[in-house]
Specification:
Layout lengths: L3 E3 L20 E3 L2 E5 L2 E10 L8 E8 L11 E6 L2 H5 L7 H15 L1 E6 L3 H4 L2 H12 L4 H7 L10 H9 L4 E5 L3 H9 L3 E6 L10 H10 L14
Parallel strand pairs: 6-7, 6-8, 8-9
Antiparallel strand pairs: 1-2, 2-4, 3-4, 4-5, 5-7
Helix pairs in contact: 4-5
């Protein structure tokens, strides 16, 4: 396909440490430099077949080199789930937008990769269902109960595509920017070794502090900056 390479052609000169995960051919673009507010990144677009005849999903990786003195550390990686409302519109209902900006800043400063994962909207339930869940939250449900009231799982994200991309980039032993132990266990089940979980917290707002408390109390995210009665 024009402008895309196949999985057997390693990205950015890396060679996979292990054989690629079985499945249809993984395609990627050639790396290009994209300047941002946080600095310049080497950016690759990835096209990952979903299986069962579903259309392939496109993801993107943004990579920066480590500074002197940090070259021997396991690479720093952030898996960021797509969030149109938070990442693009700047919604304060979640912490996604600030987490993405913090990830780009930290990855540019310390080196590593931000992998932006599509089809993860609303923890995998999709944009329309996420907005339906917002309506239930406005009526008093929390984020977990709103999903289950719609007959949907509280957490539906699949990290198979992430593991395939990380393997193709030779990122199979990583330091992961995350507060979410479920993300770690799912990645490790797919063959990615998380040698260190690096806490990735952003300040709470009045508009999302309840959302963050549900992450901490019901989904077991490691959030240490929330205290009883905190509302900003």
């Amino acid at each position: 396909m024009h402008g895309l390479s196949e999985e057997r052609g390693p990205a950015e000169g890396h060679r996979p440490a292990t054989a690629p995960a079985p499945g249809p051919v993984l395609e990627h673009s050639e790396p290009v430099t994209i300047p941002t507010d946080h600095g310049s990144f080497s950016v690759i677009g990835w096209r990952v077949p979903e299986g069962h005849g579903a259309p392939a999903t496109e993801h993107v990786s943004l990579t920066a080199p480590p500074p002197p003195g940090e070259e021997t550390l396991p690479p720093l990686v952030r898996l960021h789930s797509e969030c149109l409302t938070g990442d693009v519109l700047g919604s304060w209902r979640c912490d996604c937008g600030p987490q993405l900006q913090l990830a780009l800043e930290r990855i540019h400063r310390h080196g590593g990769t931000v992998l932006y994962l599509r089809n993860h909207e609303g923890r995998g339930i999709g944009l329309v269902n996420k907005l339906r869940a917002y309506k239930l939250q406005d009526a008093g449900a929390d984020t977990v109960d709103a999903n289950t009231m719609l007959g949907l799982p509280a957490e539906a994200r699949d990290y198979t595509a992430a593991a395939r991309i990380l393997t193709a980039m030779n990122l199979t032993s990583i330091r992961l920017l995350t507060n979410n132990p479920d993300k770690i266990s799912k990645l490790e089940a797919l063959g990615i070794t998380v040698v260190e979980a690096v806490t990735h917290q952003v300040p709470a707002r009045t508009e999302n502090v309840d959302y963050l408390r549900v992450k901490r109390d019901r989904m077991h995210h490691h959030l240490t900056h929330l205290t009883p009665g905190e509302n900003s």
